[in-house]
Design goal:
Layout lengths: L5 H15 L6 E6 L4 E7 L4 E7 L3 H4 L6 H17 L6 E3 L8 H11 L5
Parallel strand pairs: 1-4
Antiparallel strand pairs: 1-2, 2-3
Protein name: Large ribosomal subunit protein uL18
Function: This is one of the proteins that bind and probably mediate the attachment of the 5S RNA into the large ribosomal subunit, where it forms part of the central protuberance.
Keywords: Ribonucleoprotein, Ribosomal protein, RNA-binding, rRNA-binding
């Protein structure tokens, strides 16, 4: 069996704790790359995405990059789209990423935007 990287171990640990809570709430999943940040609200029971936002959106694309300010704008945008889709409470799936910097900025902005987690 192949050894898992630290990132893969963290991701597995986060997903395991999310599964233990059950599937009552949709999950706010994020992905952070070197240039962009992506967020989507996923209903795992139905297997579909309810809302999504990223720094690749047309109205955000040219002015932002991989910064905490860009992550905050993505967090606000995904919160607006999720509440428009009827989602108020989510579980936060940070993937394998540490909760600081851009990930924390996105989470805080999503909370300010009206999502509860």
């Amino acid at each position: 069996m192949a050894k898992l990287s630290l990132f893969a171990k963290r991701r597995q640990r986060v997903r395991t704790s999310l599964r233990a809570r059950g599937g009552q709430r949709p999950r706010l999943s994020i992905h952070r790359s070197g240039r962009h940040i992506y967020a989507q609200v996923i209903d795992d029971e139905a297997g579909r995405t309810l809302a999504a936002a990223s720094t690749l959106d047309k109205d955000v694309r040219g002015s932002t990059g991989a910064t905490a300010e860009a992550a905050a704008s993505v967090g606000k945008r995904v919160a607006e789209r999720a509440t428009a889709a009827g989602v108020k409470a989510v579980v936060f799936d940070r993937g394998g990423f540490l909760f600081h910097g851009r990930v924390k900025a996105l989470a805080d902005a999503a909370r300010e935007g009206g999502l509860e987690f």
